[in-house]
Amino acid sequence: MSLTTALSIAQTALLNTSRQTSIVSRNISEANNPDYARRSAAIVTSMNGSHITQIRRATSEVLFRQNLAALSSVVGQDTMLGAMNSLNLAVNGSDNATSPARLIGKFQEALQSYSASPSNGSIAENAVEAARQVVKALNNGTTAIQSFRSDMDRQILGAVGELNSLLSDFEQVNREIVSGTQAGRDVNDALDQRDALLKKISEFVPVSVVPRAANDMALVTASGAMLFDVVPRTVTFDPVAGHSAGVDGNPIRIDGVPLPAGTGGNTSASGKLAAMLQMRDDVAGGMQAQLDETARGLIAAFSEKDPDGILADAAGLFTWPGAPAVPADGVLVDGLAGLISINAAMDSTAGGNPHLLRDGGANGADYIRNTEGGAGFTSLLIDYQTRLESPIAFDNAAGLQGTISVVTYSEESVSWFEGIRQSAQRAVENKNALYVRTDAALSNMTGVNIDEELTLLLDLEHSYQASARLMSTVDAMLGALMDAIR
Amino acid sequence: MKTSFISSYAVSQSVRYQITRMQSELVKAETEIVTGRVADTGLHLGARTGQSVYLEREIDRLGTIIDTNNVVSSRLSTTQKGLDSLTELAKKYLSNMTAASSVDPTVVRDEARTTITSMIGVLNTNVNGENIFAGVNTDVRPINDFMAPGSTARAAMEQAFEDHFGFALTDPQAADVGADAMTQFLTDVIEPQFMGAEWKANWSNASDETITSRITLTDTTQASVSANADGVRRLAMSAAVVDVFFGGELNVAARNATTDFAGGVVGQAVSDLAQTQAQVGIIEQRVKSANERLGMQVDIFKGKTSDMVGVDPYEASSRISLMLAQIETSYTLTSRMRQLSLVRYLP
């Protein structure tokens, strides 16, 4: 041991302190970056004082994984809720005000008024107008649903593109990490970047991380498709130009494996992609099928019956391209809600006579019920009102079962949708809370606390002062020695 | 070495999350207090939303039925008034005829003519463009004008006389028709003209079928009276025979036979009309009680809706003030936490 050794130890101490100060200042400057993990210096003591061998990065594998999973599921759920809200507004209007259920109610009112004043032409016109509103709601609903599905396709396409570019970024960063680790360089910044990229990727698909040697990583989706292994696998998707009712859109393929869509209101979908698939085919498709069934129920309820019971029933007030035949009982006709229209024979804007609704005979004289031609004839109008409330069979394929009236069916359809939306909303709250919790836990574990850094800074200041003092003391001692031998 | 287990980012983040959550709650509560119902019915009720749609639809529909029942009621009360006037006419005609039968035949005939004219006036009453006594043929006048020249009903009666006796009513031979022959003619030939199918050919354009109205969601009723009712036919017959056959060459005995016949028929008409009035009264009562029931149903449904989606304004406003206080607290907290940093205390 000599004074020179003491001097050199003090020197290393100064060096260490200044490096540590730079770490602290970096920590402080990144305190509000959620993707930054706190750095600290690992110090090893040796003969000539201590050395900083490595800069450590605070990590918590478990919390980070939890955070990724929570992020995936909250983003999936949130995407679903947002899409459900916009679909609901487009089809049912605010507070379901323009839903077929409400408009059928208005139509029933108009029919009731008509049956009370059956000879009044303007009230007859009013009843047909109310029916026209119902038809419009069904037609517009179909258009809205199908354009929503196309919109989903566009969003999926955009998301797939983004995911692919994220994966290629991931490849670069990962390569840098692997080569840096092998060469013994400080790769902490790249690790931060890679974690940030992982979070972004998790927003699209749920990923599980498979660690490899030399900090390498492989990514597998929750459904088991390989997303990244040394090189990124391609995610492909072909959007459909125009969706049609009853036909599912194209799947998203990751490395050739189709990504499964989410199910349920509290969706099983993790990440945007699965949620968007679910909305496009499952929810929007189900809604479309129910509109189609409602349309079929209306055509059936207003079909004209031959009073003599010989001729087949024919489409009445509500008609469709297959008219005069009435759609088969209990069988879903895809896209019917977009095809339903008001019978031209009763449509005054098409030169028809609204009073045919009262008298019957839109399909020819054989179907006339008001054979005496009395302007006060109400039996058929009352009959229609009864038929609207009479149970008919609905196709289970539309997601709602049972033998119920078309009016009840339209209400059930609202219930079906709102039930999903409510559980989606609740799930968003829960999943968001979970995400906030895991995020806070992860940040607590790996993030920076400024106060802590400042106290560290004070320590460093003191140790710097002490080392400097040591140097000046050794210098004085050496000086005294030199003076003595002069 | 890391000594703390709370990061600065997590601290600021948690406050931020709470504040945004409370702010969105606040917006919801504000909407609720303004509208008096939950901000988003669908989210509030979920799978029960269909029920609220059902209730609101029912409230509107029941309201419409109450409105249409008022139309039915006004039709029925006009019908009742019409029947009242017909009964009055019949009674007045009966008493005047009995009083005048021994006097001048022209007085009796005038009485009959007035009765017919008034009767036709009453039966052709039109409410809101509907001829209320026309059955379902509400767009046509139910009774043809008997007094108009060329009336088919009058011609048919005169023709029937000529066919039966072999000479016209104005023929001098008519003076030879005896009382019994006249009575037989009236009973066998004239009465079927009124009570049978010819009534609709000569007198009436009304249909036998009357207007059916739906007065509750499940209940329908016949809500008008046709001019083809027996009381109307008999009143018309009673007055018409006097008018027509007093205009000819009949002798006193035959005329007396006619007045006797007319008197008997009009008496029956009065009782027929009374029966019809009673029926209309029952229907009026049914409509009235239906409306009361519907009104109660509407109240019940409104109560249920408000149970489902209504918001207690006091509860909402206290929630708002609570939330405002909470948000203010968290603002204070944020600013205090900003001050709570070592930076402020280091030289």
Multimerization status: heterodimer
Largest sheet of chain B: 2 strands, antiparallel
Helical element count of chain A?
A: 11
Please provide the ordered H/E string of secondary-structure elements of chain A.
Answer: HEEHHHHEEEEEEEHEHEHHEEHH
Shape of chain B: rod-shaped
Overall form of chain A: rod-shaped
Return the average pLDDT of chain A rounded to an integer: 92
What is the CA-atom radius of gyration of chain A, in angstroms? 36 Å
**Percent of sequence in beta strands of chain A:** 5-15%
Description:
The complex is a heterodimer of chains A (about 475) and B (about 350). Chain A has about 475 residues and is of the alpha+beta class. Chain A is built from 11 helices and 13 strands. In chain A, the strands form 5 sheets. A 4-stranded antiparallel sheet of chain A has the order 3-4-5-6. In chain A, strands 7-8-9 form a 3-stranded antiparallel sheet. In chain A, α3 packs antiparallel against α4. Chain A is rod-shaped. Chain B has about 350 residues and is mostly helical. Chain B is about 70% helix and about 5% strand. At the A-B interface, α3, α9, α10 and α11 of A face α1, α2, α3 and β3 of B.
Feature tags:
heterodimer; A: 486 residues; alpha+beta; 2 domains; four-stranded antiparallel beta sheet; three-stranded antiparallel beta sheet; 58% helix; 10% strand; B: 347 residues; mainly alpha; two-stranded antiparallel ribbon; two-stranded antiparallel sheet; 71% helix; rod-shaped
Summarize the structure.
The complex is a heterodimer of chains A (486) and B (347). In chain A, 58% of the residues lie in helices and 10% in strands.
List the topology elements.
The complex is a heterodimer of chains A (486) and B (347).
Chain A: H1 3-29, E1 39-46, E2 49-57, H2 61-92, H3 100-116, H4 121-183, H5 188-204, E3 207-211, E4 217-221, E5 226-229, E6 231-232, E7 235-236, E8 253-254, E9 257-258, H6 272-301, E10 318-319, H7 336-339, E11 341-342, H8 356-359, H9 379-388, E12 392-393, E13 403-404, H10 406-446, H11 450-485
Antiparallel strand pairs in A: 1-2, 3-4, 4-5, 5-6, 7-8, 8-9, 10-11, 12-13
Helix pairs in contact in A: 1-11, 2-4, 2-5, 2-6, 2-10, 3-4, 3-9, 3-10, 4-5, 4-6, 6-10
Chain B: H1 8-35, H2 41-45, H3 49-100, H4 105-123, E1 126-127, E2 130-131, H5 152-165, H6 179-195, H7 198-202, E3 212-214, E4 220-222, H8 230-245, H9 252-309, H10 313-339, H11 342-345
Antiparallel strand pairs in B: 1-2, 3-4
